[in-house]
Structure formats: C-alpha cells, structure tokens
C-alpha cells in the first residue's frame, strides 16, 4: 500500500467544436475522485500524441470520461448520418493512453464515451446511433432531465465485478448517450444491460478495466451508492505496483 493517496489521471479533452483553445472537463468527475479518496491529476490528451504516453508514468489509475462520439473510422466503419461530430486524432491519443495504462497494469475506469473508447481501443465496435439502429430502443438521451435524474433501469450481471461493486440485479441510472458498445472487445464482457439490450456496463477479464455507460459522477450527491465505482478504482490504484 502506498503512503500517499493514489493519483488518478483524468483525460482532458481538447475540443475545438465546443471551445477553441481550451481543455475541457466537467467538474463532477474531479470532485468524485477527491471525495472517493484519490488525487485527481488532469491529463491534457489532445489531438497531439506528443508526450501523452509519459502521463502513464505519473498515475496510479486512469479515468476516461464522457465526451463526443468516437470516430467510426477507428473501428472500421464509415459514419452513419446521425453520428455527431468526431475528433479522430483526439480519439487516437486517448486510445494510446488507455493502452499504455493497461500495458503497465494501471487500472482504468471508463464513463459514457470512456466506455466506448475503451471498447474501440481493444478491438470492439459501437452502435453508431441507438434510435436509428435499435428497433424498440428506450430513451437513452434524457436531454430535458437534470443530470442527477435516474431515468432508466440497468440490469447488472451476477458474479461480475460491477455486481461486486454495486450489487447484482436492477438499478436505475441516468443516461446521456446515443451510441453504445456493440461487439465487446476480446477479453471484455458486457456486464450490465438496459431493458432494450443496450450495453450499460463492461469489464475486462482480469477486472483491471471497467466501465459504465451512465454518469455516476453526476449522481453521488443524491445517490451515494455510485461513489463506490470511484472508490473501487482508487482501491485498485492503491494496490498498483508502478
Ligand atoms: Mn442508457
């Protein structure tokens, strides 16, 4: 066990579509890490690959947050008409960092786009647009609801890491996505689903990488159970050998 608190890297996006010349991160991610007992360390992984792999030497754990759509080119597809804007170079940088973290045995937790990016990083594919590709899909974009509102159920698979952290069975979650994991990457399995079969959680076979499609960082004030996801990342990070 390390003497100091584990350092949790958070991928910062350089997102010229939203704000030119700035790095952007939603503060609830940072606050969740602090509250769960980690030191948040912001990692500016923009469109340039320069130095990004060096970040892996500074961190004990990695959080990959939400954001824009992952470029379909990175999983061998062209974009459907309903795909939002994409930043393929930024995706590549973040994918490189995720792979480097994994190579070094640094635990990784993905949220929303983070889950999708991790899946693509290790060879999985995505549903590009749920409403147009999945007949009978429920609403996964609660755009009119506040961020901390629980809007649909997710069923968590028994004997999964996710069930160890949150409990197996059904729990209500929030939802701000139109894409989702389609085929899980090799060595990964989908460990939570919504009622329409959309992947809501995923983990690696060695349980060092886990992800959820909802936004737990927005829920911890009203529903403290979701803080456990961050606490688990920090627990794994505290046991790391780097
Ligand atoms: Mn959802």
Q: How large is the radius of gyration?
A: 16 Å
Total helix count? 6
The SS-based structural class is: alpha/beta
What is the general shape? globular
Q: Kindly state the number of beta strands.
A: 12
Mean pLDDT: 94
Which band does the percent of strand residues land in? Answer: 15-25%
Q: List segments where confidence is low: pLDDT < 50 over at least 5 consecutive residues.
A: none
Ligand identities: manganese (II) ion
The ordered string of helix (H) and strand (E) elements is EEHEEHEHEHEHEEEEEH
The residue fraction in helices comes out at 10-25%
What does the main sheet amount to? 10 strands, mixed
N-to-C CA distance: 11 Å
Structure description:
This protein is of the alpha/beta class. It is 23% helix and 22% strand. The chain contains 6 helices and 12 strands. A hairpin with an 8-residue loop joins strand 1 (7-14) and strand 2. Manganese (II) ion binds next to loops.
Q: Can you give me a brief rundown of this structure?
A:
By secondary structure, this protein is an alpha/beta fold. The chain has 6 helices and 12 strands.
What would the keywords be for this entry?
binds manganese (II) ion, two-stranded antiparallel sheet, alpha/beta, ten-stranded mixed beta sheet, 12 strands, about 240 residues
What is the topology?
Blueprint: E1 7-14, E2 23-24, H1 27-35, E3 39-44, E4 61-64, H2 88-103, E5 108-111, H3 113-121, E6 126-127, H4 130-133, E7 152-156, H5 161-166, E8 169-173, E9 180-181, E10 188-193, E11 199-204, E12 209-212, H6 227-238
Parallel strand pairs: 1-3, 1-4, 4-5, 5-12
Antiparallel strand pairs: 1-2, 6-9, 7-8, 7-10, 10-11, 11-12
Helix pairs in contact: 2-3
This protein binds manganese (II) ion (MN).
């Amino acid at each position: 066990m390390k003497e100091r608190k584990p350092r949790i890297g958070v991928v910062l996006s350089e997102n010229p579509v939203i704000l030119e010349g700035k790095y952007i991160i939603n503060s609830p991610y940072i606050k969740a890490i602090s509250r769960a007992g980690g030191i948040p360390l912001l990692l500016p992984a923009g469109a340039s690959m320069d130095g990004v792999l060096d970040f892996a030497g500074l961190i004990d754990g990695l959080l990959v947050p939400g954001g824009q759509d992952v470029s379909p080119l990175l999983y061998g597809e062209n974009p459907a008409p309903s795909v939002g804007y994409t930043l393929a170079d930024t995706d590549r940088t973040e994918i490189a960092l995720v792979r480097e973290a994994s190579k070094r045995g640094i635990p990784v937790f993905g949220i929303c786009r983070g889950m999708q990016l991790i899946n693509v990083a290790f060879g999985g594919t995505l549903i590009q647009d749920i409403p147009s590709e999945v007949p009978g899909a429920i609403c996964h974009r609660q755009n009119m609801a506040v961020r901390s509102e629980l809007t649909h159920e997710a069923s968590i698979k028994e004997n999964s890491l996710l069930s160890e952290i949150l409990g197996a069975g059904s729990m209500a979650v929030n939802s701000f996505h139109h894409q989702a994991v389609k085929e899980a990457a090799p060595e990964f399995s989908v460990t939570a689903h919504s009622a329409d079969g959309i992947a809501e959680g995923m983990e690696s076979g060695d349980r060092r990488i886990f992800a959820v499609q909802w936004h737990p960082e927005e829920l911890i004030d009203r529903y403290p159970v979701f803080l456990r996801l961050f606490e688990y990342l920090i627990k794994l990070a505290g046991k790391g050998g780097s």
